[in-house]
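Case study.
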Amino acid sequence: MGMLFIILLSPLIGFLFSGIIGKYLPEKITGWISSLSILVSFVLSLQVFQGLSDTNGGPAFEAIGFTFLSVGDIFVDFAIQADRLTSLMMLVITGIGFLIHLYSISYMHGDKGFYKFFAYLNLFVFNMLVLVMGSNFLMLFFGWEGVGLCSYLLIGFWYRNAEYGKAARKAFIMNRIGDLGLLVGLFLVISSCKSLNYSDVFAAAKSGGLSTEMVTAICISFFIGAMGKSAQIPLYTWLPDAMAGPTPVSALIHAATMVTAGVYLVVRCNVLFEMAPAAQQLILWIGLSTSILAALIGLKQNDIKKVLAYSTVSQLGLMFIALGVGAYSAAMFHLITHAFFKALLFLGSGSVIHGMGGEQDIRKMGGLKSYMPVTYYTFLIGTLAISGMPLFSGFFSKDEILATVFTQQPIVWFLAVVSALITGVYMFRVFLVTFMGSFRGTETQKQHLHESPALITVPLIILAILSLVGGLLNLPELFTHDHAQWLKHWLSPVLGNAQDDLHHPSHSTEWMLMGLAVSVFIAAFLYTRNKYISHASVPEEDAEMTGAAKWSAHKFFVDELYDKVFVRSSESLGSTMNKADSGIFAGLMGWVSSGISYMSGLFSKVQNGRIQYYLLYMVIGVILMLVINIFI
Amino acid sequence: MNPDSVFNTLDISHYIYLSSVLFCIGLFGVLTRRNAIVLLMCIELMLNAVNLLFVAFSSYMGDSAGQLFVFFIMVVAAAEAAVGLAIIVMIYRNTRSTDVGLFDKLKG
Amino acid sequence: MELIFIPIVAAFIAAWTGKWSRWISLLGSIISGVFLLYFFMHFNPDAGVQWQWNKPWFSSAIHFHSGIDGISMVLLILTNVLCPLILLSAFHKKEDNALLFALIVGMQGALNGVFVARDGLMFYIFWELALIPVYFIAGLWGEGNRFKTTLRFFIYTFIGSLAMLASLIYLFSKTPDSSSFSYETLVAVQLNPNEAFWVGAGLLLAFAVKIPVMPFHGWQPATYTEAPAVGSMLLSGIMLKMGLYGLLRWFMPLVPESLPTFMPFIVGAGIIGILYAALIAIRQNDMKRIVAYSSLSHVGLIAAGIAVAGETGVQGGILQMFSHGVNAVGLFLAIDIIERRNQTRFLHALGGMAAQSRAFAVFFLVIVLGATAVPFTNGFPGELLLLKTVFSYHRVWGVMAGITIILCAVYMLRMYQFSMLGESKGTVFNPLAWHEWVALSGIVLLIVFFGLFPQLIMDISAPAVKQLLILIQNTKGVMS
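After joint prediction, the assembly is written out as follows.
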C-alpha cells in the first residue's frame, strides 16, 4: 500500500530538502516546508487510522519495499505495516511532531544551524516512523538505532559546547548498551523462530513452538533494549543529561516519542511477555524502582528542564509498572496522555527559557505569571494533568494503572502511589517557584521578559487542550457505559487475549482508589503551596543542603558511581593494554630483531677481512670434511 | 701401466708423500707468513705439489690427460704470478708495505 | 587477465613520465575498472568461475590461471573502485611523486592478481607482488620511524608468506605425480590429520599475519600510523582483505581437515582481538592510531565470522570486507585531509572544524557512522550477520563480540567529537579541493547505498559461497 510509504518518506524528503538546500533558503521557508512534510504524514496517518476503524483489527495495512537481506536462515524485507497499535503511535509521532516543528520555527529563530535543526528533526520523525511501522524486528532495530542517532545529533546540536557533546555521546553510548540487549534478543529470535517477522514470531510463540526459557531470555534481552531507550534503571542517567539539546528536542524526543519506544516494544511483543512471567516481574520491579528513584531526584533539582527530565523517567517507570502487570492498554493510555502533557510542559519550559533569555534555573525565576500569561495557564494545565488532578488526562491514565496494579500487587500499588505523591510535590514546586512569587532574576532579564510569539503559544494551547481532554480516550467504566475503555477496545486485536486475565476491581473499590488518588493530589498541592507560597521560600543553594536532600540533589551520586566503575575502569584497562601492546607485541619483534642483529655482530667478527683467516677456515673445513668422511 | 717410465722405479706412494709434504709446507706458509711475495711463492709451491701428483698419476695410470692438466696449471700459475706480482706492486706503492695483515678492507 | 596487466603496464609508464604520472595512473586504474564493469555486466553469479585464462607459465605444473567467481567479483569491485579514489585522494602531491602514483596503480594490478588467481603458485606470486609497492610507499613516503616500521612489517608478512609457500609446496608434492598447482587439484588432495595440521598452520600463519588476527598484529598499528595516507588506505582498505580472502578461498577449502582444530582459536583470537583493540582505541590520541586499532577490531570479527564456515558468517564476512574497505579508506582519507590542514592529527590539538567546513563535517560524520555500523550505513548489515554467526556459534562469545558495538561507538564518537566539534583551535580549514570532493562523495555514496541495498553484494557472492561451503563440507567429509 503506497500510502504507508508516503507517510514514511515524506519526512525523509523533508530531511533531504532541509539538509541540502535549506541552507540557502530563508528560515521561514525551510521551517515551514519541513513542518509540512510532517503534516502530510499526519494527515495520511489519520486516514490510515480511519481505515483501521472500519476493519475489525486484523493484519491491517502492509507494504513491502525490497529484500534487505537474504542469507541462510535470515530473510528480511524492508517492509512496513500499520495495525491499530502502530496507527496510534503514528498519530502521536506525527501529530506532536508537527506541533513541535511549528514551535521550533519560532524557537530556533536566528540560530546558525536552523536548517540543520529541521533536517535532524525530520530525520528523527522518519526513523521513529520506521521504528513503529516496521513489520519485522530488524526494521524496528533500524528505527531504534536511527532515533538514537538523531537523539545524539540533536543533543549535541550546539556542538561548540564540549559539555553538550559529552552528554550527546553519553546518550548514544548508553543507548547502544541497550541496543546490544535488543540485538541479542534478535539473534535469539532468529535462532529459535527462523524469522524476524512479527507475525511469524508471534504465531510461533502462540503455537507453543518456543520453550519458556527461550521466551524469557528473549523478553529480558528486549527489556534491556527498552531500558536503554526508555531510560530505566540502570541505564537512565543519560536522559537528564540529554536536556543539553534545544528544548523542542527534549519535548519531542526525550518526552513524547523516542523514550516511549521501549514501551511500544513491550506492547508489541505482548504475546511473548505474557509467556514469560519472570520477565514481567523484572519489568514491574525495575519500573517501580525507577519511578520512585527518579521522583526523589526530581524533588531537589533546580534546572527546570532537569526536573521535567526526571519526571519523564519517573512516568516511564509508571508505564513499565503497568506493562509488568500486563496492563498493556493502560500503559499505552498513559503513553499517549504523557506525550500530551509532557510535551506541553517541555514546550512551556522552553517558552519560559526563551522569555528568560536562556536562563534555566528556577531559583532565578519567579512571578512569571504576569509576564507570560499564556505560558502560565498552559503550564498550569500540564502540571495539573501530570499530578493527577481529577478529570485531567493524567488522572485517568494513572488511575487506570494504579487500579490494575492494586488488584495484583498491593505493595507495588502502595509504592506507586508514593511515587505519584512525590510527582505531585515536585511538579507543583517547579510550577509555583517559577510562576508565583516575585521575580528573582537580573534587571536585564526583567526588561527582556515577554510572552512568546504565536508560533510558540498556539502549539502550547493545542497541547493544553489535549492534556485536558486526553482522558476521554479511555474513560473508566464508572463514568460512562457506552464509550468506556475505547482505547482498550481499539487495541484488542493487537493485544488479543493478553488483557483477558486482568480483572478490574469492583466499582466500590475503584471509587475508593480514585478518592485516594485525589487526596494524594490534594496533599501534594497543599504541602507545596504551604512551603513555596505561604512561606515564599526559595529552593536552597546547593551548598546549604544536607543529608537526604543533598543525596537527592546530587542524583544519589549514580553518575559518579558509573564514572568510577565503568568509565574509569575501561579507560585504565585500555591504557594498560595500550602499554602492553607496544610493550609485548612491538617489543617481541624488537627482541627478535635485536637478537638477530646481535648474532650477526658475532658472525661479522669472523669476517675480519684478512684473507689468511678465510683460508684457515677453508682448511679447517676441508680437514673436518676429511675427518667426517673417514671416521664416520 | 707403463714399465719404461722412469717414474716407475719408485712406488707411487712416495710421490704422494712428497707432494703431500710439499703441499702442506706451501699451505703452512700461506697461512702463517704475512709477506705477500712469500705468500705468492707458497701458493706456487702448492701448485707444484699438485703438478707433481698429476704427473705421477699420469704415468702410473698411463693416461696423458694428467700431463695435459699440468701444462694448464703451469700456464695459469705463470699468469697468476704475473697478475699477483702486479697487484702487490700496486699495493706496495699505495701502502709502502706488503704485509697482508693490513689488507682488511673486506671486513664485514 | 586485463585487470592485472593494464594497471601494471600503466604503472611502468607512469613511473617514467614525471608530472603526467598521476593522470596516467588514474587512467590505467579507471580502464581496469571499466574492464571490470564489462565483466560485471556479463557476469552470471550462478555460473561458477568465469573468464578463465589458463596458460602454462614457468613449467607445465605452474599455470597462469585466472578466473572470476562471485567472491572474487566482490573483492575486485572493491579494489577497482577504491584504487581510483585512493589515487584521487593523493592528487595534491605533484611532480616529484611520479613513483608514488605508479606504485599505487601497480598495487591495483597485483591485488587484482591475488583475487583472480586460480593457481597456488600464481596466488603466492601476486601475494608477494602486492607487498612490494606498499613496502616502498610506506618506506619512502612514510614518517617517523618509517624504516624500522616498514622493515618490521615486511619481516612479519614475509615470514607468514614463507610458511604459506611451504604449505603450498607440500600440498603440491601430494598431488598426483606432483603435477599441478591448480586450485582444483590442490583442493582434491587428501591429507592425514597430522599433515593437515601443519599445512593448515602454515597457511593460517600467512593469513593471520596479513589480516591481522590478534597475536600477530604487532606490525599493524605502527605501520598504519607511520605509512602515508595512501599507504594506510591500501593496507587497511584492500590489502588486509587479501588475508581474509585467503582464509576463505585457500585455507578453508584446502585443508578443511584442520578447520575443526583451528576454528575455536580463530574465533577466540578474533573476538579477544575485537575487545582488546577496541579498548586500546579508546585511549588513543592519534587519529590514525584510533583507526588502526578500530580496523584490528573489525577484522577480528570478520575473521571469526568467516571461520565458523556457515553461509551467514561467510556472506556477512564478504559484505563486511567490502564495507570495511570503503569505511577504512574513508576514515584515512578524512584524517589525511584534517592533517594536511592542521599539520597535526592529534585529538588534543584539534577541534571546531565542523564550524569551518560543513560539507566536510557531514562527509566525515557519515563515514564515522558507517564505521560505527549504524543502520542505513554499509557497516550495519555485515556486522549484524557476523554477530549473529558468532552468537549462534557460542552465546558467550557472541555477547562479548557484541560489546564491540558499544566500544566502537565510544571511540569513534570520541574521535569525531574532539576533532570536529567544540571550539576551533584557530587553524584555518581550507575548503575541500575538487579531487577531495570526488573521493569523499564517492565513499559516502557507497556507504549509504550499500547500507540500504546490501543484498546486491550478497547476490553476487551467494552461489559462489554456497559452492565453497559444499566444497568444504563434502569433498573431504570432515566438517559437520
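Observations recorded in class. Residues 476-480 of chain C have pLDDT under 50 and may be disordered. Chain C has 19 helices and two strands. We will return to this complex in the next lecture.
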